[in-house]
Amino acid sequence: xxxxxxxxxxxxxxxxxxxxxxxxxxxxxxxxxxxxxxxxxxxxxxxxxxxxxxxxxxxxxxxxxxxxxxxxxxxxxxxxxxxxxxxxxxxxxxxxxxxxxxxxxxxxxxxxxxxxxxxxxxxxxxxxxxxxxxxxxxxxxxxxxxxxxxxxxxxxxxxxxxxxxxxxxxxxxxxxxxxxxxxxxxxxxxxxxxxxxxxxxxxxxxxxxxxxxxxxxxxxxxxxxxxxxxxxxxxxxxxxxxxxxxxxx
Length: 249
Hints:
By secondary structure, the chain is mostly helical. Helices cover 73% and strands 2% of the residues. It has helices at residues 7-30, 35-65, 71-100, 106-110, 118-132, 145-161, 165-171, 174-189, 208-224, 228-248, and strands spanning 139-141, 193-195. It has a two-stranded antiparallel sheet with strand order 1-2. The longest helix has 31 residues, at 35-65. The chain is globular, with a radius of gyration of 19 Å.
């Protein structure tokens, strides 16, 4: 038996496992009212998704390295991402709606939170479309699900770590959360070309975009920590849009 051909699929399954564990931590965050425990569970969910995304990158890397890419691996990759980068962020949005709701408002506390899973639906459509879209080999069309997952999972951390009353009011507003949810599902599937971070030629000229993005991202992370994550994803989209405008000229 050729063991090498099973290594990428095993790595993909580890990604799926990380997503399953993240779901458990998100569930636990709902079951407690102690803020330190809520923060711990949100952090663990975030770290597990980050770990899953790490393995998601390396399953493709090893598949290409060992030259064992297969249709099975492609399907497994999408199914694992559906949990790690689809179900988990949708569940996070559900909890954010739930925690910001007035418990005396039946509509807000028992029905509206389920709208958070619009993120999951958008992620599912994105992943299915990605499998049949032959245009997304060197770049992306629409925001990749891992980037969207990081954006969504960073929101409760921003709430927990920020002392700003303005940020608290914004991210605790149902209409704002609904707007973020709908925009998330849209940007996942929008016909917007986004640059990839893959470096094919080791020259500064051919990688200016990637270098600028990485340097700005590093600066934001150092200065703002968790609050920087949603800003980095927004910057990534805006930088891609600006780049597209210049390419058309």
